[in-house]
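Comment thread on ticket #2218

A.B. wrote:
> Attaching the input chain for the structure job we discussed in standup.
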Amino acid sequence: MAYLRTPQALSGLMQDYLADNWQETLANNGLMSFTDWWQKDVDWFEEPNVRRGGWSGVSRLELTGADGTSRVVFLKRQENHVTHTWRHPLRGMPTFVREMKNIHALQQGHVPALVPVYFATRNVDGARRAILVTEALDGFVPLDEIELQALTGSQRRELIAQVAEVLARLHARHLQHNCLYPKHLFVKPREAGFEVRLIDLEKTRHCLFKDSAMFRDLDTLNRHAHGFSRADRLRFLTSYLNTGTRDPKLRKLWRRLAQRAGEKQQRKAGN
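C.D. wrote:
> Ran it. Output below, let me know if you need it in another format.
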């Protein structure tokens, strides 16, 4: 099955997708069709989310390759679980359609994120079903689970620089993650530095103005990156903007983020 070539193809009627490098493994496990995946009896990794008139759930599945090796995927299934957009204001669209569209957009922009294995939608007896299977991020952990105090100074700087680079690349494409909590940034230590991946892409959207995408995401990350010091945050912004601490643009962004964090804190205290 050919990969969907353009984001426009993902905005309407969607084609099935199956990654070429997974076909042999999926065939070996009898998972080549929508029905195969939908009827797979596997425990929930997370309890199904029941809302929007439907449900959506995630399972972790260990598959065996033809050579006996183990490969792990996350299987996401949903039924009548839709989001309403300006293109689909009444009937809505399955949230996995939007997530697959966003995965493709990030791939096009060379922004590291989830890697799709299989995707398809079906209408069955009036029910709108969707399946999205992605590779497990083996060896990765959420950013908020990293023990920053256990890192050396150089490791800490490298981690901050890598996160900043990925987000700068995301926003350069006018893409806003729209839910950028540290738990949605997965990191993996490697010999030289860290690898970073973005997850939870259902709410990601394209913004007309780059600064709009930037500020919303950086504000969310700044307010929830509790383990980061003032020096860490300043280092992040210098890496993100690729500039020095005296740059007026950096100082302006620093003030805006600090003001926003203060306003949110006051509002929370008032409640």
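A.B. wrote:
> Thanks. Noting for the ticket: Residues 7-135 form one domain.
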